[in-house]
Amino acid sequence: MKILNSIISKISEIIEKITGARMDEEQDDHETRVLRHRRRAVLRIVIVAAVILAGTLIAKTMVERQQYSGYKVVSEKASEETAAAQYIEVDGNLLKYNGDGAALVDMQGKVLWSENYDIESPAIDVCGKSAVIYSRKGTQMVIVGADGRVGSVEAQMPILKAKVAPQSGVVAILEDGENTWINYYSTKGEQIAMAKTRIDSPGYPVDLSISPNGMLLMVTYLFVDKGIPKSYVAFYNFGNTGQNQMDNMVSGYTYSGVLVPEVNYLSESLSVAFRDDGFTVYKGNQIPKENCTVTVEKEIVSTFCSEKYIGLIFNSDASDKHYALQVYNTQGELKLEEHFNMDYNTVKISGDSILMYNEAQLCIFSMKGIQKFSGTLEEGNILNVFKTGANRYQLITNNGIKTIKLK
Predict the structure, then answer these.
(1) What's the confidence (pLDDT) of residue 201?
(2) Which of 37, 193, 252, 325 is most buried, with most CB under 10 Å away?
């Protein structure tokens, strides 16, 4: 504090000299001395705040640039059921599910709710605080939220893929021989809308995504025109804007010779279509339009995204690195490009970290391009990883849930 006070005093003197504010105290009247006192008090507050802010920024920068070579386990909870269940992050908690039921647990392992059901070959989709657990190639869907089961849906045909819309319902691609259907159901199981698709009109539905408010549906179709494979990305609006349009379709875009295997809504008004030659971002909360397109020449190995970022991974041209990582913002601007060696089977964004892992190894990049950690974890086969705090990560392994801290 003595050093800080000395610095503040020196700065005060310099500022007063520069501004001509220093006066002869013998000539000062009472009002002038009061004003000077107030000015000095304000100045001290400003300087203290600036020093604190500078210290905070320096500490933050040091943490962001810190790299780690090891870790320690700070908590663990053994579970014989872990290997038989799957885990996914839902709004800061973990949703554990299998064919017999689901349970939401917090990061300390406390069960918040549990639900029983009987679903063969369960698959899942998450949006916000909601999730749909459905039977792949079956007909059952269970919708859950922050407090447990929200509703159930029984489809008329086998389910190929389903996506959840919080507070609204679920959309599913259904198989019907040579035809497919895209059906929209409420949380009560009532059918809101349906559309029949054929391979020639508008094509085979490959993937779909629904906006967080449930109003917009995005579907990517694949079809062949005169021997040329083409992709069609369509947007359906289930609000007032789409009521006067055929099948509620409000916009659509055709890409010749391009495959679009994956689409995702990033927010209410932003969505992305991953193409085999890059990606396209669409903008609009009523009638989505193309906002930007990033085209790449290399073969894309993996894709991932969050609300703010879109990521691509390629095989690297560097002799000493296997993979190249690129991260863009939603305006298509390249924000990060790095190389790494670890062979991975999963890549995702958790918090402000990019996580890549396989059964035994974990690699972590920050959004600043710093490789925070890369190494082998001796905690069992890794099933999933989530960031839970500064340098803390939750590991789901075949023998339990563990929290590790990088060191």
Answers:
(1) 80
(2) 325
